[in-house]
Every structure is written in C-alpha cells, then in structure tokens.
Design goal:
The chain is mainly α. The chain contains 8 helices and 6 strands. The protein binds zinc ion.
C-alpha cells in the first residue's frame, strides 16, 4: 500500500500515478514492489479522513475504472475534465471543417462530413500531443499526455487517438475502458495499448 504525498489518498502498490489526483507516486514513495512490510500507520495527516480501500482496490486485486471512479472523487473530476477537453477539441475541429464543407457543398457531399471531421480530429490530436503534450482542449482544462516509457513519440499519439476517427468508435472504446481491469485509472483503453497516460499539468 502506498499513500500519495500530494493528496494523501491510498493507492495499491502497482499504481504509478495517484488514482485520486494523478500525482506521480513511485518517485515520492520509494516503496519496493516486492516489499511485504505492512504500512498500517500513514504518516500524512490528510489520510485521517480517507476511507480505507474497498476489497477490489486492495493490492494484488484487479479493478475496473468503474471501481476506481466509485472510490476516488479526484478521479471523477479528472474524467469530467477529459470529457470537457474532447468536447472543446471537437468544437475547434468540427467548426472549421463545417465552414469548408459549407463553401464546397457543390463539390463534396455532406455524407463525407463526419468522416473528414473525424480524420481531422484524429490528426489534430495526434500531432498536437506529440508536439506540445496536449491538444488545445486538454491544455485548457489543465491536462497533458505523457508516455510511461519515456519520450512521447508520434506512433504512441497516433495509437491513443485512433478511435477519434469515428465518434461511435470512441464511445465504444470508453465503454470498454470502464469495464476492463487496470492498474492506471487515467488510461483510456488505447492509452494502455500506446503505453501512455493522462496527468494533471503542473504549473
Ligand atoms: Zn493524490
């Protein structure tokens, strides 16, 4: 068991980022993964008000994002921010594409609008995240994308954004994200494939 040095929330040993506030855990906590020494007494006064972890979030147990969301209020705020970020990005991308289609109606039918807007949203997200770590929507709500394995490269950002091509696909992916068990509750399903995660942008 490890305790977040920022918000004091309890996290399973497997977690790399606090499931409540997304602060990095390993650097601060220095808990060896094979250590079985029980840490019964948390030395942060913030933990006094923390409820103990439910059984499915105990170390060694597997949990879904739904389980994490039901326990960590900070995580609910995080995913609400993610939703606002994607809505903002959609507006930024869809509006220009809409204007272009309005002018070119005579040339390319409106049936292509959804596909073109999706592909533009996909490329916009992948290249901006590779370039500056966040889309404009994510930057506005204070989030950034990082690689778990080092530098954030274009192949990773292409993989994690691929479902944005088609809105129903993104929705389906989010449903999968909710129920498939994970140790990092900040990852969409494609984040797990791309070895990326989304954290709070520090000032
Ligand atoms: Zn925390």
């Amino acid at each position: 068991m490890q305790y977040c040095s920022k918000c004091g929330a309890q996290n399973a040993d497997e977690a790399n980022y606090c499931n409540n506030c997304a602060a990095p855990l390993k650097a601060a906590a220095q808990v060896p993964s094979q250590s079985s020494a029980p840490q019964q007494e948390p030395n942060h006064q913030q933990t006094a008000s923390q409820p103990t972890l439910p059984p499915q979030l105990q170390p060694g147990q597997k949990a879904s994002l739904l389980d994490y969301l039901s326990h960590y209020q900070g995580l609910q705020v995080h995913w609400a921010k993610r939703f606002v970020g994607i809505v903002l990005d959609s507006i930024f991308v869809v509006a220009p594409v809409f204007v272009i289609f309005a002018f070119m109606d005579w040339w390319m039918g409106w049936c292509w609008f959804t596909v073109v807007a999706g592909v533009v949203l996909f490329l916009y997200s992948a290249f901006l995240e590779e370039f500056m770590g966040a889309t404009i929507g994510k930057a506005i709500v204070g989030l950034k994308v990082i690689s778990i394995e080092g530098k954030l490269e274009l192949p990773s950002t292409l993989i994690r954004n691929v479902t944005k091509i088609l809105a129903p696909l993104l929705f389906l992916e989010f449903l999968v994200t909710l129920v498939v068990q994970t140790t990092d509750a900040h990852q969409r399903y494609t984040d797990r494939l791309a070895k990326t995660t989304v954290v709070e942008k520090r000032p």
